[in-house]
Specification:
- By secondary structure, the chain is α+β, with helices and mostly antiparallel strands.
- It contains six helices and six strands, in the order αααββαβαβββα.
- The protein has a six-stranded antiparallel sheet with strand order 3-2-1-6-5-4, sandwiched between helices.
- About 25% of the residues are buried.
- α1 packs antiparallel against α2 and α2 packs parallel to α6.
Length: about 270
Amino acid sequence: MDLKRVESQRSELVLFVIALVMICLGVIAYISFRQAQGLLVPALTIVSLLACLYIIDKERRLRNLQRKLIQELVDEKDRSASLETRLKEITALYRAISTVNSVVEPEDTFDAVLRAGLELVGANRGSIMLIDELDERLKIVSAQGLSQIIIAQTRQKLGSGVAGWVAKHCEPVLVDGAAKDDARFEDTFEIDDDELHSSISVPLHLRDEVLGVVNLSLTGSASNDELTEYELRIATVYAQHAAAAIENARLRLAAAMSGIPAVSDV
């Protein structure tokens, strides 16, 4: 039974009650006029009582059924919204991953990964930081919205700051406002060219190795208000694919520098 049919039955029940009340009032008025009550009034009272009990029970059943149908409609709407969100997420991920995979030259991979990540979550500033194997520090290999001085001078220790914490613990984080207000992060530094709204830092994790970190931020010049857990989740999934593309590019660059052809892609 659908909701429209329940509403129809409840309307019919109301009309039945009105008709019953009118009939009872008419009979009582007729009896009072004729003054020939006898057993008719008690019998009419019993019938009216039984009718009222039936109506109350019927109304209760219809009300419960209506509530159940409304809840089913709400659940169905929630499922539809969830599926729509999931489809949107998959489409955005596919577009971002396709952009990265379409890069031909390995030296362009880092910038392509960052641009696709920024577009994916709607951020306007970001960077890719990779771990230098020589000194175990994070260095910026691609950036948007950062000065060349910051890019050249940044050498962040593992465990230090947001990116260092993410690389050390291999856990993504979402930070609202200034990172210095979060007790998890030590030795943070602020970039004061724009007011920072929120930021995401996601580890680039491939198999059992952390390659680096993707940082995506919203500043005062961004059109969005804030990054949310949704963007954090989709950025984390994206980073898994981006890590493979970055490692592949690093192998190809290393092979090109040594003059040895790359054996295979990651």
